[in-house]
Design brief:
Distance between the termini: 65 Å
Structural class: mainly alpha
Helix content: 40-55%
Strand order of the largest sheet: 1-3-2
Number of domains: 1
Shape: extended
Largest sheet: 3 strands, antiparallel
């Protein structure tokens, strides 16, 4: 039986609307703005969009806070 290989390249958007940004971060749309402190980019049209790179940096910051908290807990146990 013959087989066919298909290569598909999908480019992810860099700028996301609020709904997409919330989904990207794994959050619900309603609480996103109060929990996420990333400021959206204002386009010349006035549209507000969130930069994926800023969202990634914010998420990485959350992860480093978790590590710091773990270090504090371990220090208290010693």
């Amino acid at each position: 039986m013959p087989t066919t290989s298909v290569s598909i390249s999908i480019k992810q958007k860099r700028l996301l609307n609020k709904q997409e940004a919330a989904e990207y971060c794994g959050m619900k749309h309603k609480g996103f703005e109060s929990l996420c402190h990333v400021r959206p980019t204002i386009l010349p049209s006035g549209k507000l969009l969130y930069d994926v790179l800023d969202l990634d940096q914010w998420i990485d910051g959350l992860k480093s806070q978790d590590t710091q908290n773990d270090d504090e807990i371990i220090a208290r146990l010693k």
